[in-house]
Amino acid sequence: AVEAAKAVGYTGAGTVEFIVDADRPRDFFFLEMNTRLQVEHPVTELVTGVDLVEEQLRVAAGDPPALDPDDPPAPTGHALELRVYAEDPKRFLPGPGAITRWEEPTGEGVRVDSGYAAGDTVTPHYDPLMAKLCVWGPDRDATLVRARAAVDAFVVEGPKCNLPFFTELLAEPDFVSGRYDTGLVARMRA
Fold first, then answer.
1. Integer angstrom CA distances of residue 1 from 4, 31, 33, 58
2. What is the number of other CB atoms lying within 10 angstroms of the CB of residue 50?
3. Residue 177 burial (CB < 10 Å; 0-12/13-18/19+)?
4. Burial of 129 (0-12, 13-18, 19+ CB in 10 A)
5. CB atoms within 10 A of CB 168
6. CA-based Rg of the chain, rounded to a whole angstrom?
């Protein structure tokens, strides 16, 4: 990823995406580069301790990044992000509406980035993302335990919401084991 950014003279926040062959983990393939922060940036922040928004603003202001791209911080622990949407948890169709109750989870390793509260309305005119529920733990198992507790504690009433799907996902053996692929949801819904 660093070599790709250097090859095009890129400076700033960005994401280089690859796909990995689960059967041959040394075989990975370039997908794309996004020249911006992406919605998943809290996962990187949680495992590195780096505020990527601050770094992006620093570079945009003409200051050098605080990080040396040739010596990035070593990631620690395991992080996971669940996007909380106003959508049907079975068919994933948008489900806008007025939010009558909103309670965000708290606790060690739990981060919620949101822009909604009780009394707000999710309209059909924009993306129905309500919050990003991000969870960190020292390893995958601890992260999954925290994620389950956070999903159970997150209350959204009013619009349809995909939190029940996350309850299913976090109990799905293939997901729990970490041996899943892009067909997982289709298999869960079959």
1. 5, 11, 9, 21
2. 17
3. exposed
4. middle
5. 14
6. 18
C-alpha span between 53 and 168 (Å, rounded): 32
Q: Residue 95's closest CA among 29, 138, 28, 156? A: 156
In this structure, the number of other CB atoms found within 10 A of the CB of residue 18 comes to 11
- Beta strands across the sheet bearing 110-114: 78-85, 129-137, 110-114
Task: Kindly report the pTM of this predicted structure.
Answer: 0.90
Instruction: Please choose, from the candidates 47, 43, 42, 50, the residue with its C-alpha nearest in 3D space to the C-alpha of residue 67.
Output: 50
Amino acid at site 7:
A
Distance CA 13, CA 155 (A): 33
Q: What is the pLDDT of residue 11?
A: 83
* Under 8 Å between Cβ of 45 and 52: yes
Catalogue the active-site residues: 32
73 CB neighbour count, 10 Å cutoff: 12
3-state secondary structure of 55: helix
Q: What is the DSSP letter of 154?
A: -
Q: What is the CB neighbour count within 10 angstroms for residue 138?
A: 11
Chain segment 32-76, per-residue pLDDT in tens? 999 888 889 999 999 999 999 999 899 889 998 888 878 889 999
